[in-house]
Amino acid sequence: MAGCAKRCKQGLVKFVLSLHKLITGTLKKDKIDDDFELSVVCHRPEGLDKLEAQSNFSKRELQVLYRGFKNECPSGVVNEDTFKQIYAQFFPHGDASSYAHYLFDAFDSAHSGSIKFEDFVMALSILLRGSVREKLTWTFNLYDINRDGYISKEEMTDIVRAIYDMMGKYTYPALKTDTPKQHVDAFFQKMDKNRDGVVTLDEFILSCQEDENIMRSLQLFENVI
Q: In this structure, what is the dihedral angle of CA atoms 142, 146, 147, 149, given to the nearest 10 degrees?
C-alpha cells in the first residue's frame, strides 16, 4: 500500500500541473499514467455501499482507495497544514502553500477545516468520471475563491500567481512580473462574454466547451483509476 500512497500523491500533482497548463495556454496532449493517487485520508467511511451509490466508482475501486488512505493516514483526516506539506515535497524550488490552500478549500466542500476519505472520493468521482459540466463546475468553484458565483480578475490573478509561485523560478527563469496579469487578461478576453468584469459559471462552461485544449485536458483524467 505504500506504492498506492505514492501513486496517489503523484496523481494529485499531475492534476495541478494540468490545471496550470490549462490556465497558461500551454496544455498539450500529455500522456497520463494509469497511476493516480491523492494522499491522505483514512478516516473510516460510513459505508462503502453508500459511497458506491453516490460516486462513479465501484465497490472494489473504493476498497483499493480506502486501503491506501488508511495506510497513509491512520488519523482518518488531513488538515491544511499536512496538505501543504505534501505539496511542498513535490515543488522544492517554489512555494506551493498558496495554491495548496485554494485546492484544499475545493476538496473541503463542507468547509470543516479537514478532508476525509469521502471528500476525496466525491471530488475524484467528478474529476475522473463526471460529465463535462460537472468537471467544469468543480474547476469554476476552485477559481471562485469567495464563493459568490463569479470569478473576478482579482481571484484569477491570485490563482495564477499561486501557480507561478508553486512552479518556482527554475521552471520559469525568464518570467516577468506582469506575466500572470497577461494570462488573466487573456482569460477574461475569452470568457467574459458580456464584458461586465466577471465570469459567470455559464460563461466559463461555454468558453471551455469552445476550446479544444481545455476539453482535451478534461479527457486526460478519464479511465485513470
A: -100
Answer whether 22's CB lies under 8 Å from 217's CB: yes
The answer to whether 89 and 81 are in contact (CB under 8 A) is: no
Burial class (CB in 10 A: 0-12, 13-18, 19+), 201: middle
Say what the pLDDT of residue 181 is. 84
Q: Are 138 and 126 in contact (CB under 8 A)?
A: yes
CA pseudo-torsion sign 58, 30, 11, 5: positive
The pTM (predicted TM-score) of the whole model is 0.73
Lowest model confidence (mean pLDDT) among 31-45, 60-74, 112-126, 130-144: 31-45
Q: Cβ distance 115 to 81 under 8 Å?
A: no
Tens digit of each residue's pLDDT (9 = 90 or more) over 38-82: 333 344 556 788 899 999 989 888 888 887 667 666 777 888 998
Distance CA 111, CA 26 (A): 32
Averaged pLDDT for residues 164-178: 66
Task: Tell me the sheet residues that pair with 166.
Answer: none
Pair 117, 62: CB distance under 8 Å? no
Are 103 and 158 in contact by the 8 Å Cβ rule? The answer is no
CB 221 within 8 A of CB 15: yes
